[in-house]
Structure to design on (30 residues):
């Protein structure tokens, strides 16, 4: 899943809070 991929790259919960819905949607499409 995308969230696992992001966390796997060393992203923390605090970093993920900077993500906006359209950015997350773009990540899903990509």
């Amino acid at each position: 899943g995308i969230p696992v991929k992001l966390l796997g790259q060393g992203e923390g919960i605090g970093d993920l809070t900077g993500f906006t819905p359209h950015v997350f949607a773009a990540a899903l499409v990509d």
Notes: The chain has three helices and no strands. The CA atoms of residues 11 and 17 lie 10 Å apart. The chain has a mean pLDDT of 61. Residues 1-30 form one domain.
